[in-house]
Amino acid sequence: MRTPVIAIFDVGKTNKKLFLFNEQYQIVFERSARFTETIDEDGDPCENLESLRLSVFDSLHEVFRKPEFEVRAINFAAYGASLVYVDADGKPLAPLYNYLKPYPVNLQRKFYESYGGEEQLAYTTASPVLGSLNSGLQLYRIKYEKPALFERIHYALHLPQYLSFLISGGMYSDMTSIGCHTHLWDFSRNDYHEWVRQEGIIEKLAPLAPGDEVFPASFPGNGYGVGVGLHDSSAALIPYLVSFHEPFVLISTGTWCITLNPFNHTPLTKAELDADCLCYMHYKGAPVKASRLFAGYEHEQQVKRIAAHFGQPTSRYRNMAYNAGIVHKLRQQTEGPQSIGGKVSAFNQRNLSDYQSFEEAYHRLMMDLVDLQQQSTRLVIKGSQVGRIFVDGGFSKNAIYMNLLADAFPEMEVFAASMAQATAVGAALAIHHVWNKRTLPNDLIALRFYAHAHQQEGTNNEF
């Protein structure tokens, strides 16, 4: 008996993974690859598109040769702000330029001066000004710096949709990619921004397809459908949207700690944009208000500083228990530096000689990071009826972070959430109706509840 499965390609900047999920959303096969980056014509590093293309085909050939699996569908999740410029046959015409590539200052100035200024454009497109990370500006750049190339472009496909095209032969755009800090989408009008039409960019964008749409395959094999592909941050939210119906926010922690609130429908304000808030788009086409914090990166740098000071390995913090006594002691010491503009925590300026041990200094670091996280998360909770916070990723396994977060939000239920491969599972769930006849499992996400200090002491039974 062959096991019905869905194949999901989860393409990150570093790791490219293929998963097969059975109808219970358990991983029954996985393959991982890493490619050496290549360089574009300016010598800047960029994705090796040809290696990626061949890897997709090789992986599928391998899967189709396995007699124990019946592939019913394929879908893709990939990082955003990355465009593949193709001709009418789908052949790439240029490198996949890196979203970290420096953006020309004069061209950026010209763009914003032409279309109402940075503040106005950031407001209507629900995105901070981010240079090449605003992927619409990458296409604008080609128009003015490489007009001959611009003429030859049939479509500019975001990376998830290019991967989908490789298997389906269909060229489409998807809202989760178009709506994520691209400057292409006007959230106030729920349509492409006026500049996209005025600059002739609209002709270079493939027709929009819903995130749960499925197309027939042109790749060998039979009887399976191909999803349109999803932006990875939007895909990772889907398991939570499917599993929980009471309003919640998700703090997705890694190098960036991103708070996603699918239940906040108030427009972004200038203050929120200045504080690095933006809107993502979930796969059903509704905006998801989000705030970003570079907290995972700061944590990594400061742990190195603490470890060097106390002559301990950086891994020392990994299994450290939460010590309420240390937290109480440190809270009595109210003097000290404050966070820098809501972006960097106060710990950056602290003197490590003030702490008696690695444990004490590490608790202070986590208190400072959670203070910053509280500010960031409250920005997107404001204006919505949210009662729960889910935390996934690295910090969800950190007992000190989780206990401090529960204290920072005493009015909320705070949970550490764990699930294997949320992004890949989300891409599979988006097209569940096509390949899976079973009802959705109710145990996709494991939760661990963290009570705040008053609850632990039994002095507050309200929550």
UniProtKB/TrEMBL annotation:
What GO biological process term is on the record, naming one? Answer: xylulose metabolic process
Which Pfam families does the entry mention? FGGY_C_2, FGGY_N
* Domain Carbohydrate kinase FGGY N-terminal intervals: 6-196
Q: Which Gene3D superfamilies match?
A: 3.30.420.40
- Xref: CDD domains: ASKHA_NBD_FGGY_NaCK-like
Q: Which terms does the record give in the GO molecular function aspect?
A: D-xylulokinase activity
Q: Write the protein's name.
A: Sugar (Pentulose or hexulose) kinase
| Taxonomic source organism | Parapedobacter composti
**Which protein family is named in the record?**
Belongs to the FGGY kinase family.
Start and end residues of each Carbohydrate kinase FGGY C-terminal domain: 246-432
One GO cellular component term of this record is: cytosol
Q: Which UniProt keywords apply?
A: Kinase, Transferase
